[in-house]
Write a structure and sequence with these properties.
By secondary structure, the chain is an alpha+beta fold. Helix 6 crosses helix 7. It is globular. The longest helix has 14 residues, at 23-36. It is built from 8 helices and 16 strands. Strand 3, helix 3 and strand 4 (89-94) form a beta-alpha-beta unit. Strands 1, 2, 3, 4, 5, 6, 8, 9, 13 and 16 form a 10-stranded mixed beta sheet that branches. The chain has helices spanning 23-36, 52-62, 73-83, 100-105, 111-118, 143-153, 161-170, 230-240, and strands at residues 9-14, 40-43, 66-71, 89-94, 122-130, 133-135, 138-142, 179-183, 186-190, 194-198, 220-225, 251-256, 258-262, 268-271, 274-278, 281-293.
Length: 299
């Protein structure tokens, strides 16, 4: 675990589109707190149309010690592309819609506490790697991707509830996906409605898709949901909130470190809610790939 006593070069990276504009105030508060602690701190320029890659290049060029990310899972996702497999510490101040990483790690707190933790000690967590991109929470394909796409364009309801509304809407289009999986050398022929590869337990605005997943145990949980009927999926949806769905006969959980996905069709894969690739592909668990502030929690 690394500490925060020494003077650090810190940049605060915020998403102006997150939290209905609340991210800016949180970013300025985080900046002022970092400055009050004697750090070399500044805000990174941000706007809704700014290319993430350009900001990432600035972060890399400045050789900073810590990146405080104010936003949701998508903003954090882009930050870890810069920080993965480096000594750069990432601190998270949740200000998005889902905040699934923060939920899974217990980082979703009052703003003052979140900022304090984002500037505090850090420890290594695992990441998922899909092709040349990294994911911190859950990589997924199938029904969950369709739900994510639907939620992105939804204007109502706001907040995490829009994922539930999107899931109910997409049930009418429920389909199965014929896949061949090679999990650590084990061959599996599956036809799921939803397939998730979990580094943490939560995705989709608070759904506990993989209740046993931990981001520091060197393995991922692969959750195969289906094949199931629309009626069964409808019954499973509320169970995912608590993780009880894994007890259902239509749900199977496997654990491993590397999986190859083969498919006749190309299917989109998302991680942290962001598009990261498509099948066929390989997903690998990369141990201790990210230095994350305030993890593990001491309380």
């Amino acid at each position: 675990m690394s500490g925060s006593g020494a003077r650090e070069r810190i940049r605060v990276w915020w998403n102006p589109c997150a939290g209905r504009g609340a991210a800016r105030a949180l970013a300025e508060r985080a900046l002022n707190e970092a400055l009050s602690r004697g750090h070399d701190a500044a805000l990174l320029p941000s706007d809704c149309s700014r290319a993430v890659e350009t900001t990432a290049e600035e972060v890399t060029a400045e050789a900073i010690d810590r990146l405080v990310v104010v936003g949701g899972d998508g903003t954090v996702h882009h930050a870890i592309q810069v920080a993965a497999r480096t000594s750069l510490v990432v601190g998270v101040v949740p200000a998005g819609t889902g905040n699934d990483l923060a939920r899974a790690l217990g980082l979703e707190t009052a703003p003052g506490t979140a900022i304090d933790r984002a500037l505090g000690p850090s420890a290594a967590i695992d990441l998922l790697r899909i092709d040349d991109r990294y994911g911190a929470t859950v990589a997924t394909l199938g029904f969950s991707v369709a739900v994510n796409q639907r939620a992105e364009i939804a204007r109502w309801p706001r907040g995490p509830a829009k994922y539930t509304a999107a899931a109910l809407h997409e049930l009418a289009n429920l389909r199965r996906y014929s896949l061949t999986l090679h999990l650590d050398g084990r061959r599996l022929e599956v036809s799921p409605n939803l397939l998730a590869f979990a580094n943490t337990s939560i995705f989709g605005g608070g759904m506990k898709i993989a209740p046993g997943a931990r981001p520091d145990d060197g393995r991922m949980e692969m959750v195969v949901v289906g094949p199931a009927s629309r009626t069964t999926m409808l019954r499973l949806l509320p169970e995912v909130r608590t993780g009880r769905h894994v007890q259902h006969a239509a749900v199977h959980v496997y654990r491993g470190t590397r999986v190859t996905i083969e498919s006749d069709e190309s299917h989109q894969i998302r991680a942290d809610g962001e598009i990261v690739g498509s099948t066929p592909t390989e997903i690998e668990l990369v141990p201790a790939a990210l230095q994350l502030a305030a993890y593990p929690l001491t309380s």
